[in-house]
Write a structure and sequence with these properties.
- The complex is a heterotrimer.
- Chain A is of the alpha/beta class.
- In chain A, 48% of the residues lie in helices and 18% in strands.
- Chain A has a 5-stranded mixed beta sheet with strand order 1-2-3-4-5, with helices on both faces.
- In chain A, helix 2 links the parallel strand 3 and strand 4.
- The model of chain A has no long low-confidence stretch (mean pLDDT 92).
- The mean pLDDT of chain B is 87.
- By secondary structure, chain C is an alpha/beta fold.
- Chain C has 10 helices and 5 strands.
- Chain C has a 5-stranded mixed beta sheet, sandwiched between helices.
- In chain C, strand 2, helix 7 and strand 3 form a beta-alpha-beta unit.
- Chain C is rod-shaped and about 95 Å long.
- Classes of the chains: A alpha/beta, B alpha+beta, C alpha/beta.
- Chains in contact: A-B, A-C.
- At the A-B interface, helix 2 and helix 3 of A face helix 1, helix 2 and helix 4 of B.
């Protein structure tokens, strides 16, 4: 199962609609990095509104994807993390504090624009 | 005492997914809210991942439980994660925040403990590990 | 209670009441009932003694009911449980004194007394049960009331909301507050949330931990948290306890917090 990645100007938009199992998550990591490379994208928004569970492994994959994208010159924002998911992650002590977040796709794009203008 | 029980075998990554799904539907059935459903499902994911990482195979058993309280019978969900892997040599060490042997891949057992209400580890080196954890409906 | 004991007690009623009354005087000081007026104390004693004497000849089931309704009146008015437990212990002593005067056969005396003991213990147990049941109910209701002291999320400007926290924050309440906070952030599409702790009397490590966790969760959901309303004593406590709030933007007043929030959302207030 692959997570579709859409291109919008110099940004990449991803809306994760499925429950992320390990393989899908790792495949997504690969696909995203290769797309950033091919398109020369400067910003990525990953929307997690439809994701109802993020465990430590998925959290790590997401954190890594952000670091890896940064190395490739693209800023990443995670959006739409659900309250139940946020509370569970914080309960476990997973803060993901190196990852910029925003409420939704719109605010995420806004944030990226801000960062890229700086 | 577990009223009903179903077990999912964990011997590859799909076992983790299956265990999660079983956990989510059972917790929904019992009546847990969305936040607790997330906590329970994530706890199951972590426990089954540990089985897969360290023991290569094992099982996750889920069941609805009940206990008498002043306000009547209280419902809950009980998860038993069982494997015949190498066992945990130092349980206290493993329950310390920040301790990790997988290079940071798991949240660690202390994280799982915080998601649930009751948490018991029974482990023997060379024999295996059984973790029993319960969450009660408030 | 055996009929012969009933008649025995009724027979010595006057002496019994007399001696018992004297004992009840010492019960008074022990239980801080000195502030109660003499007449009120006297009449409560009379009521109590009459009630017990009547109870002696009542059958068990009726007695239980009568005892519970008797107790309820006094529980509601705040009369201490220890008055009754000590009062009944005094009753026990007085009855033993009277019995031992009248009965010289030790065996018979012991038999009579152990029956009486059981009866008195039954009353004491019932009273303790009623009192503590009532306390536990009150505690449950207060817990619920505290939970109801909800923490509302108030939208003040576009993308800026305020959550005033009032009262003590225990773990159960913190969980509720956190869920409320996150749902509210999403519902109001908030970019900045100001958590005002002016109304939180005590900020210890537990409370600080809950507030910090709440702000971390808010960040994950996509908004920023600013902590406001930190009184000087709270600031002292936080630093003394070694709580690290360096990652958490804070302002002393709501007003300053709002100014900062406006900054963060690229807005500012302009005089017309």
């Amino acid at each position: 199962m692959r997570v579709p990645i859409l291109k919008l100007h110099q940004y990449l938009l991803i809306s994760v609609q499925v429950e992320l199992d390990d393989q899908t998550a790792l495949q997504f990591q690969e696909d995203l990095l290769s797309k950033i490379h091919v398109e020369g994208s400067l910003g990525v928004v990953i929307d997690l509104t439809s994701v109802d569970m993020i465990d430590s492994f998925i959290a790590k994959v997401l954190g890594d994807v952000v670091d890896m994208s940064n190395l490739m010159g693209a800023k990443v924002v995670l959006t739409g993390i659900q309250p139940a998911v946020a509370i569970t992650l914080i309960d476990m002590g997973i803060k993901l504090d190196n990852v910029p977040t925003a409420l939704d796709l719109e605010q995420g794009l806004g944030k990226l624009q801000q960062e890229l203008e700086e | 005492m577990m009223k009903t029980q179903s077990c999912v075998e964990v011997k590859n990554e799909w076992g983790i997914v299956a265990a999660r799904q079983a956990g989510r539907s059972l917790s929904k059935e019992i009546g847990f809210g969305s936040v607790d459903q997330a906590r329970i499902t994530t706890a199951i994911s972590e426990l089954s991942r540990n089985i897969y990482l360290y023991a290569k195979r094992g099982e996750i058993c889920l069941g609805a439980v009940e206990r008498p309280t002043k306000m009547g019978m209280q419902k809950g969900i009980q998860i038993i994660a069982r494997d015949h892997g190498p066992g945990i040599p130092d349980i206290r060490q493993v329950m310390t925040d920040g301790f990790t042997t997988s290079g940071g891949m798991g949240a660690g057992l202390p994280g799982v403990k915080r998601l649930m209400d009751e948490f018991l580890i029974d482990s023997e080196t060379g024999e295996g590990t059984t973790i029993t954890t319960t969450k009660w409906l408030r | 209670m055996q009929p012969y004991i009933i008649s025995l007690l009724n027979h010595s009623k006057e002496t019994l009441i007399d001696l018992w009354q004297k004992e009840l005087e010492s019960v008074r000081t022990d239980n801080y009932l000195d502030s109660v007026s003499d007449s009120v104390y006297e009449s409560t004693n009379q009521n109590f003694m009459q009630f017990i004497m009547r109870l002696v000849s009542t059958d068990q089931d009726q007695a239980k009911e009568q005892l519970s309704s008797f107790a309820e009146k006094y529980i509601q008015s705040g009369w201490p449980l220890s008055y009754y437990t000590q009062g009944l212990q005094a009753f026990r002593r007085v009855v033993l004194a009277i019995l031992s005067e009248q009965e010289s056969d030790v065996q018979a005396l012991l038999l009579t007394f152990s029956e009486l003991e059981a009866w008195i213990d039954g009353i004491i147990n019932q009273l303790v049960y009623d009192y503590t049941g009532n306390w536990e109910d009150i505690i449950e209701m207060q817990k619920l009331s505290l939970m109801e002291l909800s923490a509302p999320l108030i939208p003040v400007f576009e993308s800026i909301t305020v959550m005033p926290l009032i009262g003590t924050i225990d773990t159960a309440r913190a969980k509720l507050i956190m869920e409320n906070l996150l749902d509210g952030v999403i519902e109001h599409r908030s970019e900045v949330v100001l958590i005002d702790i002016t109304g939180v009397p005590v900020v210890d490590t537990m409370v600080a931990h809950h507030i910090i966790q709440a702000s971390e969760a808010v960040r994950l959901v996509g908004a920023t948290c600013i902590l406001v309303g930190i009184r000087p004593e709270i600031a002292q406590t936080i630093v003394n306890l070694g709580i690290d709030l360096t990652k958490f933007p804070t302002k002393s007043t709501l007003r300053k917090g709002i100014e900062k929030a406006l900054e963060l959302t690229n807005k500012k207030m302009v005089d017309l």
